[in-house]
Amino acid sequence: xxxxxxxxxxxxxDKLRQPIVICRMGLLxxxxxxxxxxxxxxxxxxxxxIKKLKDVKEAQIQVRKNEGDDSIVIQCPISQIEFNGFHxxxxxxxxxxxxxxEAQRELKDQQKCISCGEEVKSQEDVISLNQTPDEQLxxxxxxxxxxxxxxEKAASKKANKKRTKRENPDADNLDDNEEVKEGDAxxxxxxxxxxxxxxxxxxxxxxxxxxxxxxxxxxDFLCRCVHRGLR
Length: 231
Known about the structure:
- Helices cover 48% and strands 12% of the residues.
- By secondary structure, it is an alpha+beta fold.
- It has 4 domains: 2-130, Herpes Virus-1 (2-Layer Sandwich); 132-167; 170-198; 199-231.
- Strands 2-1-3 form a 3-stranded antiparallel sheet.
- It is elongated and about 75 Å long.
């Protein structure tokens, strides 16, 4: 059973193949299968903690081909220990690196990933791949409780909104009017900024164009007179 967990996709029971993703219960999945099921909304209740792709982490792993078939075997990149369901392994959630717990413990560096050097934000991000059924059940119970609280908050917010609308039918219109006023105020502010950005032309500057216009006007009149034979 333990070896099967290390070799098979937890949700489809197919042989693991890269890319592999891991959930916070320490279960391994074929990424392609997980994406397909999320799109089809075909996630069994036992995996209800996975609602989107961000709920799993793509594993950065070292693998070798298993002799005798086309399955893959995960190995620790530090100790070369094989992940067979008996040796304890972990995944650093921040970077996705999968290593043996023994290698992590021997190097005694709990602040950085010993495989890639990325900082481990908290010990909660160090997920065991060898969780017991009791540990996984406790995780699901905690998840269900958090989900219940979130659902209650959402329902309460929706009920308050309906009650407000029922008690004050014009509330939506008032909100719309406020949005219109805010929009007008923003546009006026932009217009004022634009006017400030364009410098006022001085009288001397304006007179240049006025003088040039008068000269052009006189020259044009003289040309018309010459053309008609008037001097």
